[in-house]
Amino acid sequence: MAAKPLFTAESLRELIALGEGQFLELKGTWSYDREPPQPLGKRALRDKVAEAVAAFANADGGTLVVGVEDDGIPTGHGRSQDEVADLVAVPERCLHSPLSCDHQLLELDGEEVLVI
Question: Which end of the chain is more exposed for a tag (fewer CB within 10 A), N or C?
């Protein structure tokens, strides 16, 4: 966990309200390809995290919020503590130039989201 919280719930809501862009990526953890929606597999979510962190690393940085849909609705990450730890470790384990990223778990509208 980051030594100092990265966001308050209010400041994260304000950032999300601005919408995705160069410095913000929202990643939902659900696949809507079929009814009912299904949780994304561990590997698919891990790959999405790696892709977003690599893109930020090759630019000017940014914030990845896992558990918020593209429309800004928090749906939660829905992962166990071990799976969250694996997601947080993705930048160090999966990128060719390992990165250490700050992270925070935060509750938005009753849903826990992961901020990297």
Answer: N
